[in-house]
């Protein structure tokens, strides 16, 4: 069975690499013997979709476009799948080896290992990683716990629109979102997706931990242009109040809210078990304050106090 699948994948790859125009499923089924022998259309479709995903996992860049007849077609352009000459010195190879270690405890561990093998086959120094086999006191790790990470990472790579259910911090129930994913980025231990929200017609950033259920891919083209630079971190930092230009005054229970105390620009100890803090005020501060529950009381400004009260009422009503 393994040999039969490998032969089928090789034949599909050769067909996609050897064509100058997109080939439809119908044409591919008529060109590959294993697909001809599929019992029915449903069996063929399942087999083809698995094979296509497997080839993409192996690194083949497969484009999905419309052919001249208006059918969805597939091809793998040679210029997109040709590895240029690899010329890395020992320090550059060591940096790549160290970067690959970041993913050792994530689902990308296999992909990182496979990428290193391909680079070494292309000329990267075999012994270029001086950290190989050694145990460093500090080793880089990027945790990936969200189930949505892998399908979104693949969708960003393949430029495929997705649909998922997303629960905003102010909402009791999730709602469906149609997104053209651009980039993923980790900021302060949390993963975020930046992309074009079709329903809202604008760029949006989504926290992966708030995505519920499965991420579903859609076979369609992007409707918005992908920017050259996607500022996920800057956008999230702005929402979190990192670029705040105002101050908020809050009362904080003594001995509580240490993250808020670390952000405070001024702290005045009270004698009634509460302290007064001045903290930077930017978009998203209300959501952060709600996380501290009854340990925080907003004194001002009034609009921040109203936003926090609204969020608390939404949570209580859930």
Features:
318 residues; alpha+beta; five-stranded antiparallel sheet; 12 strands; 36% helix
What does this protein structure show overall?
- With 318 residues, the protein is an alpha+beta fold.
- The protein is 36% helix and 23% strand.
- The protein contains eleven helices and twelve strands.
- It has helices spanning 2-18, 25-31, 33-36, 41-57, 90-101, 109-121, 149-158, 232-239, 258-263, 285-290, 302-317, and strands at 23-24, 63-66, 72-75, 162-166, 175-187, 190-197, 202-207, 211-217, 246-253, 266-269, 274-281, 296-300.
- α1 packs across α4 and α5 packs antiparallel against α6.
- It starts with a helix and ends with a helix.
Shape summary? elongated
Q: What is the average of the pLDDT values?
A: 80
Q: What fraction strand?
A: 15-25%
What is the CA-atom radius of gyration, in angstroms? 25 Å
Q: Percent range for helical residues?
A: 25-40%
Low-confidence runs: 127-138
Strand order of the largest sheet: 7-6-5-4-8
- Report the span from N to C terminus: 51 Å
Largest sheet: 5 strands, antiparallel
